[in-house]
Amino acid sequence: MILVVGGAGYIGSHLVKELVEKEEVIVLDNLSTGHLKAVDTRAIFVQGDLGNEEDLQMIFSSYPIKAVMHFAAFSLVGESVVDPLKYYENNVAATLTLLKVMMKNKVKNFIFSSTAATYGIPNVEIIDEQTVTSPINPYGHSKLMIEQMLADFSKAYGLNYVVLRYFNAAGAHESSKIGESHDPETHLIPIILQQLLGQREKVSVFGSDYDTPDGTCIRDYIHVTDLASAHILALEALLSEKKNAEVYNLGNGLGYSVKEVIETCERVTGVNANVEMADRRAGDPARLVASSQKIYSELGWKAERNLEQIIGDAWKWHKKQQY
Ligand code: UDP
Predict the structure, then answer these.
(1) How far, in Å, from the CA of 257 to the mean position of ligand 1?
(2) Helices assigned H by DSSP within 240-287
(3) Ligand 1 midpoint to CA 84 (Å)
(4) pLDDT of 181-216, one tens digit each?
């Protein structure tokens, strides 16, 4: 059985939907930002907190857990700058509790959701796993601290782990049964689509004077279903002892500017956006684009879905959003 912590969240719920086809799954989520409706009904659901030793011990005592996949983190760069305590408490301290209880119960396989924010402002066009990690905000720091803990636990206690550094997760499940739903929403693609649906007045472009061809920030958007399939491959590689103590980037390898994303949304949906230029947002690097060559050559994974498909699936979901 696999324990998915944060399995009611955006990325966790998409992973659970794929994983239940292969494994027995138990989801632990405190529903602080996740949605019970997003959890596939074939998974066991426990409402609880990863920072609570009793909740965790109850699960490890009651179920034969062979691996833990950890998605339960706060992930807003701007918020982390204003409220770092929240990020160090949940993303670092609570994860440490999870690892402690795992070690106590001799559960030694761990898949960790990390982020491109660990790279800070990279000095290369395309970021690979050798690129220096130098976060520029508490969110990135909190994720890198856990990566360091995993490396140390691996050496000292025999923990087996894979770290997956996501670039910009987007899109929705092709069934439109689950998708992205944050409150408040801060991510670019859902904000554009909400504007196109008349749910918000305008889209603000945060900065048009960056050192990029059109002056707006460039990101690497990756379909959430592609992220889910990378997790399944990483889990299989870990459980079959093919891979351990590895870090992989997960991206498309293609960068799109904010303006290009808006234009693609307009093209895919056939609706024009109401756009305004606005000031830069604190903590945004100009360009984050991944090389995912390592996971392709080692596990055979690559992103299958392009920006049009990401936006098309997100559009279907937003039109009928159910939670
Ligand atoms: N962005 C924007 N307007 C918005 C939301 C986001 O211009 O209303 C920009 C943001 O500054 C960044 C890119 O879109 O350059 C992607 O932002 P998002 O919050 O989706 O993801 P992040 O890169 O912060 O993880």
Answers:
(1) 10
(2) 258-269
(3) 20
(4) 999 999 999 999 999 999 999 999 999 999 999 999
Among the atoms of ligand 1, which is closest to the Cα of residue 283?
Answer: 24
Multiple choice CATH, 2-170+221-250, 3.40.50.1820, 3.30.390.30, 3.90.1560.10, 3.40.50.720 = 3.40.50.720
Angle at 309 (CA atoms; ends 8, 227), nearest 5 degrees: 40
Domain 188-219+253-319 has CATH 3.90.25.10: yes
The catalytic position among 10, 87, 139, 221 is 139
**Closest CA to ligand 1's atom 14:** 188
Q: What is the mean pLDDT of residues 242-263?
A: 97
139 is catalytic: yes
- pTM: predicted TM-score of the whole model, two decimal places: 0.97
| Cβ of 204 below 6 Å from ligand 1 | yes
Instruction: Pick the residue whose CA is nearest to atom 15 on ligand 1.
Output: 217
* Contact in structure between 205 and 276 (CB atoms under 8 Å): yes
Give span(s): CATH 3.40.50.720, the chain. 2-170+221-250
How many Cα atoms are found within 13 Å in the side-chain-facing hemisphere of 90?
21
Share of the chain above pLDDT 90, in %: 97
pLDDT in tens, 86-127: 999 999 999 999 999 999 999 999 999 999 999 999 999 999
Q: How many Å apart are CA 83 and CA 77, to the nearest integer? A: 10
Compute, in angstroms, the gap from residue 133 CA to the centroid of ligand 1: 21
Q: What number does the ligand 1 atom closest to the CA of 205 have?
A: 7
Count of C-beta atoms within a 10 Å radius of residue 157: 12
